[in-house]
Design goal:
With about 375 residues, the protein is an alpha+beta fold. The protein has 3 domains: about 170 residues, no CATH class; about 80 residues, OB fold (Dihydrolipoamide Acetyltransferase, E2P) (Beta Barrel), CATH 2.40.50; about 110 residues. Helices cover about 25% and strands about 30% of the residues. Helix 2 crosses helix 3. The protein is elongated.
Length: about 375
Amino acid sequence: MKKPLIEPRFVGARFDGHTIPLELLKDISVLEEFVIAVAKWIFVQNNVRIRAPKGFTDPLSIGLSEVKDGSAIPGITIDYIDDSAGLFPAANEDYFFRAVQAIGGAINAAEHNEPITDHLPANLLGYFDRFGRGLREGEVLEFFPGKDRPARLTKLTRRRLLLASQNEVLTDEITVRGLVSELDQSKMSFELQLPGGRKIAAKVDAIHLDTILEAMSGYRTGIKVSVSGVGRFDRYERLHSLDVIEDAAIIDTNDPLARIDELRLLKVGWLDGRGLVPASSDFDWLESFFVDTYPPTLPSPYIYPTEEGGVQLEWRTGNQDVSLEIDLASLSGDLHCLNTETMQEISKVLSLDDPTHKQALVDLISKAAKGEI
């Protein structure tokens, strides 16, 4: 017998068309383990026991039955293999529904800065290390969609939940770029040197070994690699290691994201005692521009800091020299193009918070790369 247990809602561009990326199914699969653990805790609290009885969940399973319209709403059901079996007749299913309420209550408390452990004990909050890890910036999992307080799990609320847990080590999905300074093939591990020189340990599997070997052989010539996977952080958000690598790729010498990593290390006064530094949020905007708007097939610009706290992007492609000086505070850009054969110039002021202006910049670089202007 199946009964609806919970219908959370994923909100974000990736979930348009009520689809759920396969990578997020890992988060949904953790929910079964999480709910069972909380249900056992509630049973113990209500029955003054040391632990839940053996066979507590034998006749029970939790599954994904469908994805409904919305942004993406997975219909998660509770299923009894045999209604009369074991210690879990329908009369006791209340523990599982109460477990869902407790998990949602903890998320809701984290969102509104209320006491989280009023809903779940610190040890069970550790499940949020795996549940919600696949969410990206700007994405939301609403545990109780449609309610006045839908219990919104985001990267921020997940972090608050983990800080309230007993976990000393936190994990999250991350992409980092750097140099491979050392590889130990016997241990299948390597050291990744981040911008600024700090090194972190990372595990490698056979799938990505050739890429890591290529990066290590190019260490002295500055060949960098981009590595995506699951990172281990301390409670101060300092990355210590990479436990799982899901992707590894050699990147261009002037890869814009790697260059932004370097620029984040700038200190005020970097230019002979002068020189302002963009805010962290300004670098976030610049990074999102290259991730979300700028096609990777186009030439990568050279990126330089400006004394006023902005950045200048320069392209030398085809018969064009193109420069764009960006005031990151106002997101305005002064664009200048010079045809090195005809000496014809183009000058424009772009509002880079306007999608049409950003697209106009992309179109211009595309035409310049093809020699069409």
